[in-house]
Amino acid sequence: MEPFRIILVADINGSIVFADPKAEQFSGLKQADFLGDGWLWGVHPRDRLLAKTQWRKSVLYKNVYEEFYRYRKYDGTYHWLLTRSIPLSNFRIPAMHWAIVLEFLGAENIGGVAMKENHFHE
Q: What is the pTM of this model?
């Protein structure tokens, strides 16, 4: 089964400026609710500080971002996702925007995530 993916775009400061319609479909939040730091609302409370801290560090140093954490679905359940982000630039302006992919992992992919769980979570 193909993992479910949501695309977000952030500005140079890491503030979300675009959320694709799948964000609303998965989370039940309006697309506008994802803007700025609104995307953090759906991150599991135990994972939120890590997600925010690592994201800010990636933005500051213009590094690729890759983290596993749990995200809230519209029905209130939490599902593991892998978030990957890269800074986008052109020859005139380095790191103008960030392309972000939230990839919700299916049950068949949980094994790789479970190994990370002990590292990132209680």
A: 0.78
